[in-house]
Amino acid sequence: MKSEKDLRRAIVQVCKQIHQKGWISSTDGNVSARLANNRLLITPTGIHKGFMDERDLIVVDMEGNLIRGTRQPSSEILLHLTCYCERPDIQSVVHAHPTMCVAFSMAGITLAKCLLPEVVFTLGAIPTANYAPPSTQEVADSIRCHVKEHDAIILERHGSLTVGKDVFAAYNTLERMEHVAEMTYYARQIGEVRPLEPRQIEELQRIGEAHGWARKKVTVNERCNNCNACGKLAPERNNGAAAPDVERVVEEEVARALAGRG
Ligand SMILES: [Zn+2]
After folding, report:
1. CA angle 70, 76, 77 (to 5 degrees)
2. What is the C-alpha to C-alpha distance for residues 71 and 68, in angstroms, rounded to an integer?
3. pTM above 0.90, yes or no
4. Whose C-alpha in 7, 58, 132, 204 is 20 to 30 A from the C-alpha of 67?
């Protein structure tokens, strides 16, 4: 385990990077790391993470009680505590508000695994946790089942949650997830996005396993055409919109084409 001094430096570095990337604004976001003796080092509440100092970080116990430091714990402390409780293997938790990931969740579109090899290799799938009001126990409960199996989770209409074996690993996963969201967004603007074929996913999983990359296998239910990141399905999740009447749309398009020819 790294020294507390090294962890303080790493957390401040990662917070500044997240701010520079534009994935948090003002006092948003929080980052934590495990210390020895059931203690956590975590960013305090109400501080701008882009201008934070190593001395601003505080130490809490596994119930979230302040042990050392002059500031109060992050408002999302429950989110962090739940991750450490459910995942004894992780050393760090990063919560941010990455633009594209949040935008996809606002549009009711889940970001899944079926489009890009690196997601199949590394993350397996990116689940979206149901909406819960920020800073509540409900947020912590919304991710509990997901974090057991996944290192990257989108919090609906709120942000991201990534975990890892150290502060930089949790940050790397955030960066990868937002990059995937960005590429998916642009692909959807350009044209139809075709998901990977099931046999291609299986092939990628075999390669990933051989390299020891894949943490979680993409299951049959999670495979292509369920995630709707490709935009092929309607209605999209949570927006309450009715599915377009495909027959009617086709008829209208055909009528328009025929009228144009005439
Ligand atoms: Zn947040």
Report:
1. 60
2. 9
3. no
4. 132
Cα 93 to middle of ligand 1, angstroms? 13
Identity of the amino acid at 35: L
User: 41 and 52 in contact (C-beta within 8 Å)?
Assistant: no
Q: What is the pLDDT of residue 111?
A: 78
Expressed in angstroms and rounded, the spacing between residue 161 Cα and the centre of ligand 1 is 9
Distance CA 208, CA 118 (A): 9
Separation of alpha carbons 110 and 119, rounded Å:
14
pLDDT at 77 over 60: yes
CA of 75 to the centre of ligand 1 (A): 9
**Structural domains of the chain ordered from first start:** 4-222 (3.40.225.10)
User: In angstroms, rounded to a whole number, what is the distance separating the alpha carbons of residues 55 and 69?
Assistant: 8
User: Cβ(164)–Cβ(92) under 8 Å?
Assistant: yes
Catalytic positions, written as ranges? 76
- Computed over every residue of the chain, the mean pLDDT equals 85
- Angle, helix 137-147 to helix 77-86, in steps of 10 degrees: 30
Mark the residues whose beta carbon lies below 5 A from ion ligand 1.
159
- Amino acid letter, residue 146: H
**Dist. CA 159 → ligand 1 center (Å):** 6
